[in-house]
Structures are given as C-alpha cells and as structure tokens.
Design a protein that fits this description.
Its main location: membrane. The protein has 682 residues and is an all-alpha fold. Helices cover 76% and strands 1% of the residues.
Length: 682
C-alpha cells in the first residue's frame, strides 16, 4: 500500500502546483489587461498556453508500452481517475451547449442533466466493476470473449466486428461534435477562420493521444478538469452575487426564479412583443403561400430580384444599394427544389419565433395534448441518455485503468462528485443569464447596445450565433427580436455579465479543455478498437507490442483528420450530434453488455442479432423522421428523432432474449467467465 500512497501523494503535489500556477497565470493576464493589453492577445495567450500545456503533458507521458498506451498501466488512483473521467465526460455539449439548451427550453433541458447523471449510476451498478474484473483493453474485447464460447477468437469474431463497428459509429458521431466546438472557440477568440481553428485544436488532440495513449490522456484530462471547473464556476458565481448578493449559484438561483417568472409575465403582456410575434406569423404565412404555388412563385421571385437590381443600376443608386441588390439576387434559390427547402426552413423559423414565451420553470407547458407529448419526449430522452451513457466505449474504457475492482467502484463515486460540481451549476447559470438578458438587454435602446452584441453577431456571418433585429422599427429591443444559439451562451456569459475580458478567455479555455478532453478519449477508443480488435485479434496475432502501438497511433491520426474534415462542414448543432450518439450506443451495445454480465443464457447468436436489430431500428427511425437528414416520415408516438433509442434498446434486448432461447445455450467456459467477473473481489 505504501508505494501506491506515495504515488497518490506525488500526483496530489504536482496538481496542486499546477492549480497554483494556473491561478498565477490568470492574475498576470488580468494585470496585463488593466495595463491595456489588446483583447486579441489575451485570446491568443489563453489558446497558446493551454495547448502547449496539454502538449507538454503528452510529450512527458509518451510511451510505446501496450499496457501503458491502452490502459495507463492500470495504476491510476480512484480520485484522479474520477477527475479524468469527469473531464472525459464533460464534453463540449455539457460545457458549451447544455446551459444554452436550458436557457432556450427551460425545464425540458433538465432531461440531459438527469439522463447523463443517472447513466453514471448505471455504469457503477451494471457494468464498470465487471469490466475491470475482466482486465482487458476494449469493449469489443469483452463482448467477443463473453459471447465467443470455447473458441473466443473464432466464435466471437462476428460479435467483435459488430462491436468495433458500433464503437466507431458512436464515437465518430460524438467526436465530430467536439471538434466542431474547438473550431467555434478558436474562431471566436483568435479571429482565425473556423476551419483553421479546427485544425489548430486538432494539433493539441494529436500530441496528447498520439504520443502517450491512455497514459498521456489521463494526466492531461486531470489538468483539463481543473481548468473546466474554474472556468465554469467564476462567471456563475459573479452573476449569482450580482443578482442575488449570494455567490453560491446553486443556492441563489432558487430565489431568482420567481423574479424571472414575474419578468416573463410582464413581457408576455407587452403589446410590442405581441406586435413583433405577429410580424413573424405573417412572414411564416407568406412563405407558406410561396410554397403552395411552387414553381411559379420561385420564377416570379427570381424575376423580381433581377428587376430590382436593374432598377437600382438604372437610377445610379449608391454602391451600397447596388451591392445589396446583387447579394439578394445571388442568395436567391437556384431552382424550385432549393426554394422549397429554404422556404420551408424559413417558415418553420418564423413560426418558432412567433410562439409565445415559454415559462422557464413550468414543466411541459401548453394544452393537454402538447403537454403529454413534451412529457413523453422528456422521459424518452432521459431513458436514452441513461442507457447510452452506460454503453459509451470511451467512458467504459476508463474502468480498465484503476488498480483494482474496488478502486473502480470508488472512481465512479469520484466521477459523479466531480461531474455534479458542474451539473448543479448549469441550471443556475441558465437562469442567471436569462434573468440578466430579460432585465438588462430587453427594453434597451438599439442605439446603445452593449459591445458584446456586435462581437458575437460577427463570429459566423453565414450562420449567425447571435443576432438582434429591429423587426417593428420602434428602436427598442423586444425579446422576440433576439435570436441566440445554444452553443454561444456560455462562451458569451462573461461579456453579458460585464466581467473583464480575461474571464472570457478563461471560459474559452474551459470550453476548449472540455472539447479536447472528450475528443482525446473518443479518438483513442476508435483507434484502439481498430488496432487491437481488428488488426491484432483478427489480422496479425503475431504482431509485436511495438507494432500494435504504432498501428494504433497511425489509425488515430487518420481518424482524427477525417473527423476534423467532417466537423468543418458544420453538420449540426453540438447537442443534437451528441444526443444521436447516445441513442445509437444504448441501442447497439447496452443490451449485449448488460445481458452478458447478468444472464448466462445469452449466447453469440442472440448478441449478433440483438446488436444488429437495435442499431437498425434506432438508425432507421432517426433517418426516417429527421428532416435535417432527409427524412420526413411520421414519428411513432410523437417521439423526437434524438430519442430513437427508446425503440432501439427494447428491440435489441428482446431480440437477444428470443434468439438466445431459440438457439443452443453457451458452453461451460462462458458460464465460468460470467461467474468469475461477478464473483466478489477477494
């Protein structure tokens, strides 16, 4: 026990020094800002310093040892593994988007917090300790051994391949969202192009995971968690003290909710708000009329746009007017099919902005039918997030890194503790920012808008993350005239709160740490599955340990660049991409994992059929019902596409049970394996 205790004390000493040094770095930048340092330089320093720090840890932790590269030598103490897992878990979706989702959707956004937190309880109870007892490297490894029978190499081949495919699809969907967030942060705080920002962040990801695998990622993630925690708590505590004279946001926001509700009632009764929403309803009706008369309406609109340009040129209008007319003609749909797509999106956006204010604290608002649909979707999303959490390969991999089964159980406790420090603050931050915007920005004069409005309006001009438009031309900001993207709220919070710009840089560094920490774990999960489960187990069993690690590094490099390219296309908002990954993970892997531990009768035939069925049902429902993905089919029981796992998980479970009962039972070796992993630790 003494060497382990010494190792723990050494780690505690190093990270205490890191925390003190990081505090000194913040103080130095704050002093430089007071002396007049340009904001752009502060952004550069934060980005550069944190990326260099992570790269330095990666270089120090470099290794070619298989045990160190895959599972950090199985010697990470429980508390530090909990911090690393929390950083792995608090992704861009949690840090950047979740508070924004709560801001926009109120009570409904709590589904993410409840689902993800509950999922960790399932990890503790159902899966993590048993994986640690199994003592291998990857999730496909466990499934292949459990369902392989007497000849696990050949018998488990189909299960292994399916598990690898599921790991790649789930992790790739998830990692694209993280790299998208990296580009968003880098473009905002350094001024570089979005695509360039993606590849800058990618360099940091690769230095950590490429050189040292799980060992480098673990010690980087501990440092990243410290930055995440500090970055999230400081703005929340500042706003809490500003609006309630209490610096503890988890306590203060309960007192602020009645004030927010009162402000919502005032805005709901404001005739100017009603006027703006009526304008949006009229715009939606105009788009509906155009859609009803296609393709003639498209042709008429194109002629009108061309005529407008000809007229401004003929009367020698100003260059500004001519350029505006030219842009209008260029932006006009190229054909009737494109017009149908764009006008449908515009109609939906205007209808959404015409909706009345949704009370923040009211669960499932609306008429009884609407309330029931919202409640069912809330519960379905919680279900999918819980079971998806319990099946995410990059999270379950961390159960292999602790010294013992007991340490794994303790590690899950620490993980929940470190996650809750952030998750209990997220609802508070959403309320605090919402109250600030509703009371300070709404009702203000357009001629005196705060500087942060123009900053964020210009981050992405093609797809604005924040905008305010004087729709009714009264010179006063109405709530309905504000559009804010969920992905921007937390990053903009320091400026909304009036904090020094150095705190904006800190929050950006926290968001970057959240995205990079999760991306590291996801990329390693993919590359390890390909190198260990495909190359080593199925292609070349005689490969040396050095060759296996080299193959994993090369595959990680290839996957990282493919994911970066996918993220540069901006495939969707962060929260939606992450939600899809959870439904797919739950539908494909959760039934096989849980029944593999707790039901000896589950066999290879059942596992293969269940994994395929769960995945196909989930993927088909997503594609069939999501208009963004080209689908437009009717939803089952009005369940949103993001919660497709509500159908995929039961389909997978029932299929495994039915097929297993209809086919021969597993052999004694499989029963002995189940008895071993379920036996109490000695």
């Amino acid at each position: 026990m003494k060497p382990q205790r010494t190792y723990f004390q050494r780690l505690r000493y190093y990270y205490s020094l890191f925390t003190i040094g990081f505090g000194g770095f913040l103080a130095a930048l704050a002093a430089l800002e007071q002396e007049g340092m340009p904001r752009v330089w502060i952004g550069y320093l934060f980005m550069f310093a944190t990326i260099v720090l992570y790269a330095l840890i990666g270089v120090i932790s470099r290794t070619s040892n298989v045990l160190e590269y895959y599972v950090a030598g199985r010697r990470v103490p429980a508390m530090f593994n909990g911090m690393a897992t929390a950083a792995d878990w608090i992704s861009a979706a949690s840090f950047i988007s979740l508070a924004g989702g709560l801001y926009l959707h109120g009570f409904d956004g709590l589904a993410y917090i409840m689902g993800w937190t509950g999922g960790y309880c399932l990890v503790q109870l159902l899966i993590a300790p048993y994986l640690r007892k199994f003592s291998q490297y990857t999730i496909p490894d466990f499934l292949a051994e459990r369902y392989g029978g007497a000849d696990s190499d050949n018998g488990g081949r189909a299960v292994r391949i399916l598990a690898v495919i599921a790991t790649i699809i789930v992790s790739f969907t998830y990692v694209v969202a993280q790299i998208y967030a990296v580009g968003l942060i880098a473009s905002r705080f350094t001024g570089v192009d979005f695509s360039v920002g993606i590849f800058l962040g990618l360099a940091s990801i690769l230095v950590c995971s490429f050189l040292g695998g799980m060992r480098a990622i673990t010690w980087t993630q501990v440092a990243q968690y410290i930055i995440i925690l500090v970055a999230f708590l400081i703005p929340a505590m500042w706003l809490s003290a500003k609006h309630s004279d209490n610096p503890i946001p988890q306590v203060a926001y309960g007192k602020l909710l009645p004030k927010l509700s009162a402000r919502e009632h005032v805005l709901q009764a404001d005739p100017k708000e009603a006027e703006v929403r009526a304008i949006f309803r009229q715009r939606a009706a105009d788009y509906a009329d155009r859609l009803a008369t296609l393709p003639a309406s498209w042709e008429v609109g194109r002629i009108d746009a061309q005529r407008k340009l000809d007229n401004v040129k003929a009367r020698n209008a100003s260059l500004l007017e001519i350029r505006s007319a030219e842009r209008e003609l260029i932006a006009y749909p190229k054909n009737a099919e494109e017009a149908e797509r764009l006008w449908t999106e515009a109609r939906e956006q205007n209808l959404q902005r015409a909706e009345p204010i949704v009370p923040h604290a009211t669960p499932y608002p609306g008429n009884p039918d609407t309330s029931n649909i919202k409640r069912n979707n809330f519960l379905a999303l919680v279900f999918c997030l819980m079971l998806g959490t319990a099946a995410l390969p990059h999270i379950l991999m961390r159960s292999y890194t602790t010294p013992s089964v007991h340490e794994t159980r303790v590690s899950v406790f620490w993980t929940l503790f470190f996650i809750l420090l952030i998750y209990l603050t997220i609802p508070a931050l959403a309320v605090l920012v919402k109250y600030d915007i509703y009371s300070a920005l709404v009702g203000s004069d357009y001629a005196h808008l705060p500087n942060w409005v123009s900053y964020w309006a210009n981050v992405d001009k093609l797809n604005p993350l924040f905008s305010i438009t004087d729709v009714n031309h009264d010179g006063v900001v109405q709530l309905a005239e504000i559009t804010i993207d969920a992905d921007v709220l937390v990053l903009a919070t320091p400026e909304i709160a009036g904090l020094p710009y150095v705190i904006s840089g800190l929050v950006a560094a926290g968001g970057l740490a959240a995205a990079l920490s999760t991306a590291d774990g996801l990329l390693l999960a993919i590359s390890n599955a390909l190198s260990h489960d495909v190359y080593y187990k199925l292609v070349d069993r005689g490969a040396s340990t050095q060759k296996r690690v080299t193959i994993s590094k090369l595959l990680l490099l290839a996957v990282a660049f493919i994911a970066a390219y996918a993220a540069s296309t901006k495939p969707g908002d962060i929260l939606s991409l992450v939600g899809a990954a959870f439904s797919l993970a739950g539908s494909t892997l959760f039934p096989a994992l849980v029944l593999g531990v707790f039901w000896k009768r589950a066999n290879r035939h059942g596992a293969v059929a269940g994994m395929v069925t769960g995945f196909l049902v989930c993927a088909w429902y997503m594609l069939h019902t999501n208009p963004i993905l080209g689908g437009g089919g009717a939803q089952w029981f009005h369940i949103a596409p993001i919660s497709a796992g509500i159908f995929g998980v039961p389909a997978g479970l029932l299929t495994i049970v039915a097929v297993s009962l209809l086919t021969p039972a597993p052999g004694r070796q499989t029963g002995a394996l189940v008895d071993y992993i379920r036996a109490p630790e000695q």
